[in-house]
Amino acid sequence: MKHTSISTAVLTALLATAALAGCKKNDDTVDNNAQPAATTPAPMTPAAPAEPAPQPMTAAAPVNVSAVTVGKTAAADKSVTPVALFGPKDVIIISVRTDGTASNANLGAKLTYQDGQVAGEQTATLNTTGAETTNITFNNPNGWPTGKYRAEVMVDGKAAGTPQEFEVK
Fold it and tell me: How far apart are CA 32 and CA 29, in angstroms?
């Protein structure tokens, strides 16, 4: 009987070991019902004074050419009375009314003669945050050839405003 009780004891021990090994959890398995482990907060260190959060950049309204006027003289407010007929020795002023915001924008004005030849081209730098008038003046000491002309305006190389036509007689 001793043989049977030793065999039974060894068999019981082996079964208990196997049962315990089968119940052991893998470290890779996650217990979804487990409570989170308590964590100790990191010691607080004095923070630097908070800087105001940067304000979101609102897109500035791009500059828009609202009016192009061709004339001979400019008033104190840079407005120009429209003129459709010039003499060969007249000064030609291209008055450009803009709205919106521009920082170092390239404002260009070009005069084109009836045969397509460029009769004059000039630029100005536009810095504005609202409505503004910029005048570009053209002189021809030799006199403007008689014929029809077209005045065109560009902002940063792109056509802007309505082209104006006039004549030199």
Answer: 9
